[in-house]
Amino acid sequence: MQFGTINDTTAVVVRHGGAVTPPYSWGFEPGDDTADFKFYNLNGDDGEWKVYQATYMNMARTGYGCLAYNYNKENDADDWAMLDPIKVEAGNYVLRYWYSGSDGHTEKLGVYWGTGNTPDDMDVCIDEQTIKQGKCQEAFKVIKFDKPQTIYLGFYSHSDKDENWLTIDDV
Q1: How many domains in the chain?
Q2: CATH number, residue 107
Q3: Which pLDDT belongs to residue 10?
Q4: Which of 140, 139, 158 is nearest to 99 (CA)?
Q5: Who contacts 167 (Cβ-Cβ below 8 Å, separation ≥6)?
Q6: Can you tell me the distance from the alpha carbon of 12 to that of 71, in angstroms, rounded to the nearest whole number?
Q7: What whole-number distance in Å separates Cα of residue 84 and Cα of residue 91?
Q8: Which of 50, 97, 107, 160 is spaced 20 to 30 A from 41 at the CA atom?
Q9: Phi, psi (degrees; rounded to nearest 5) at 119
Q10: Are residues 152 and 114 in contact, defined by beta-carbon separation less than 8 angstroms?
């Protein structure tokens, strides 16, 4: 009779739950940690943000993952996606991200920052986009912080009803 160690191994995954520090990026790819993202569907319809990953209908600028909002036929969008907290020092920072919509549809996107991860906390508008094309476009904004703090980035879809997909990638 032979005795061995056929099934005596254990794997452990450790998540760091603290704020990220710049430089940092989100690609929304399979395997990326998006567990602490918060999504708010303020009108309670079936149009909502999610981390979207698919090879058969790839809407990402790079890879297979993106942050995506899918529309509702009867209701205007009123939906938020909040990313992980970011620890910043006083100074200037660059926010760079790529966005797209769907050809033939008009999407409306707001980008905000705040000191909490709820819609009520998003009190500083960084950018506002009206998107009319399916091709990815780059946005580049400089943000100045007067003091060290932990902030959150929020992406706000406020498109009219019955539009289509809105995507964010490579933040």
Answers
A1: 1
A2: 2.60.120.200
A3: 59
A4: 139
A5: 52, 59, 60, 66, 67, 68, 69, 99, 100, 101, 136
A6: 38
A7: 20
A8: 97
A9: -55, -35
A10: yes
Tokens of 44: 């309670």
Stated pTM of the model: 0.89
Burial of 74 (0-12, 13-18, 19+ CB in 10 A): exposed
How far is residue 171's CA from residue 163's CA, in Å, rounded to a whole number?
23
Q: What is the pLDDT of residues 64-91, one digit of tens each?
A: 999 999 999 999 999 999 999 999 999 9
101: its two tokens: 């919509």
Strand partners, 128: 110
Judge contact between 40 and 69, C-beta under 8 A. Answer: no
Q: Residue 149 belongs to what domain range?
A: 38-169
Kindly state the tokens that stand for 133: 């094309």
**How far out from the chain centre does Cα 40 lie?**
12
On whether the CB atoms of residues 125 and 110 are closer than 8 A, the answer is: yes
In a domain, 107, yes or no: yes
Name the nearest CA neighbour of 48 among 40, 38, 60: 40
Q: How far is CA 100 from CA 37, 133, 153, in A?
A: 20, 6, 18
